[in-house]
């Protein structure tokens, strides 16, 4: 199973790449700000990537800012993404040097 890392000021979420289900949450600090996030709207984010990037939707994307994705809370409330946090440039992870 491939996962996606959703990261923000208050912690990180490991998310199932296909369903958006939150698999794990690591809080950064004393405030569990993201503890009530149940599912990330990966379908909407994939659609946004497909229309705003020249590369395939998930190509090179491994870490996403929490503000760039929509999500549902454990109470069923939907929080929309913040458009200003979305970057149409692909995220590239550099390869390790051969030496």
Descriptive key words:
single chain; 99 residues; mainly beta; four-stranded mixed beta sheet; three-stranded antiparallel beta sheet; 1 helix; 11% helix; globular
Structure description:
The protein has 99 residues and is mainly beta. Helices cover 11% and strands 30% of the residues. It is built from one helix and seven strands; from the N terminus they run ββββαβββ. It has one helix at 42-52; strands spanning 3-8, 11-16, 22-27, 37-40, 63-65, 71-73, 78-79. Strands 3-2-1-5 form a four-stranded mixed beta sheet, with no helix packed on it. The chain has a three-stranded antiparallel beta sheet with strand order 4-6-7, with no helix packed on it. Strand 1 (3-8) and strand 2 (11-16) form a beta hairpin. The longest helix has 11 residues, at 42-52. The radius of gyration is 14 Å and the shape is globular. The N and C termini lie far apart (31 Å). 17% of the residues are buried.
């Amino acid at each position: 199973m491939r996962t996606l890392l959703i990261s923000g000021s208050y912690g990180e979420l490991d998310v199932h790449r296909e369903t958006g289900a939150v698999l794990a949450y690591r809080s950064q600090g004393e405030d569990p700000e993201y503890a009530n996030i149940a599912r990330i709207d990966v379908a909407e984010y994939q659609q946004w990537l497909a229309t705003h990037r020249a590369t395939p939707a998930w190509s090179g994307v491994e870490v996403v800012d929490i503000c760039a994705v929509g999500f549902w809370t454990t109470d069923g409330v939907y929080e929309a993404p913040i458009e200003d946090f979305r970057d149409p440039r692909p995220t590239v992870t550099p390869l390790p040097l051969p030496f």
